[in-house]
Design a protein that fits this description.
251 residues, mainly alpha, 9 helices, 73% helix, 0% strand
Length: 251
């Protein structure tokens, strides 16, 4: 099996890689500064449209990936009050969300796609609920540092990133899992989750909160939104290709 054929590379890059590349160029000021109000509006618009499309196409994996990104970013903004400091609820939220979010991507990618029937989505709803309660508890106003397991001292610190080492390792593990799943299945959903994860990491690198971080989070949502549409055409094409020989034989 040729994993690096032009067809495979095309399906990996499109559309998520192109969206992320274009967004990075725009965010670096290639076309001038972007008003913060426009960034905030695009963030909410993208996630609202993405959730509606995921619901329309019964894609539970994309729906809960979008929900994870949205809840994670809103938690960071709420507990940090717009600025991540070296200690306090904002810093705790950063360490917790940066660790849990890539693990959720791994979980949602391997969960079997069974549509949006309640018995199928109940475990994912429960996961998001317990994670939300956990983050709310550890980010109480009187807390100054996160639980020790979120930043074990024996791991040290990786320079060049505001994230603790454990969170970086979680992102690396999620990237490897999603890349392997894409190479095995070569579906737009796997590619979308992979590039959305990269965009989310860039959002944390941009400070986790603020216009730049919000813009990258919106890009992650846009990638997932586009993968929903791309996947519907992918499935339609393969359905047609599998039924075409039967139609020809009848004729």
């Amino acid at each position: 099996m040729d994993f690096w054929s032009p067809k495979t590379l095309k399906s990996l890059v499109l559309p998520g890689g192109i969206f992320l590349l274009a967004a990075s160029v725009v965010f670096r000021g290639a076309f001038g500064p972007i008003p913060s109000t426009a960034v905030v509006f695009s963030f909410y618009a993208v996630f609202a449209a993405g959730i509606l499309l995921a619901w329309r196409f019964h894609s539970s994996r994309i729906l809960f990936a979008l929900a994870t990104l949205f809840l994670g970013h809103r938690a960071l903004e709420f507990f940090s009050s717009g600025r991540i400091t070296s200690a306090g609820p904002g810093r705790i939220a950063l360490e917790a969300v940066a660790f849990l979010l890539p693990l959720n991507f791994i979980a949602f990618s391997v969960f079997r796609e069974r549509g949006l029937v309640f018995p199928a989505i109940l475990p994912r709803l429960a996961l998001l609920f317990f994670e939300s309660v956990f983050v709310a508890i550890i980010c109480r106003p009187e807390e100054t540092i996160a639980p020790g397991f979120l930043h074990p001292h024996f791991l040290g610190h990786i320079s060049g990133t505001p994230l603790p080492t454990l969170a970086v390792l979680a992102f690396v593990a999620a990237f490897v899992v999603l890349l392997v799943r894409f190479l095995l299945y070569r579906q737009p959903t796997e590619s979308g989750l992979l590039w959305a994860l990269v965009a989310t990491f860039l959002s944390f690198q941009a400070g986790a909160v603020g216009p730049a971080a919000t813009a990258y989070a919106a890009t992650a949502g846009l990638i997932l939104l586009s993968s929903t549409i791309w996947n519907s055409y992918f499935l339609a094409y393969h359905d047609d290709s599998t039924t075409l020989p039967a139609r020809r034989s009848v004729n």
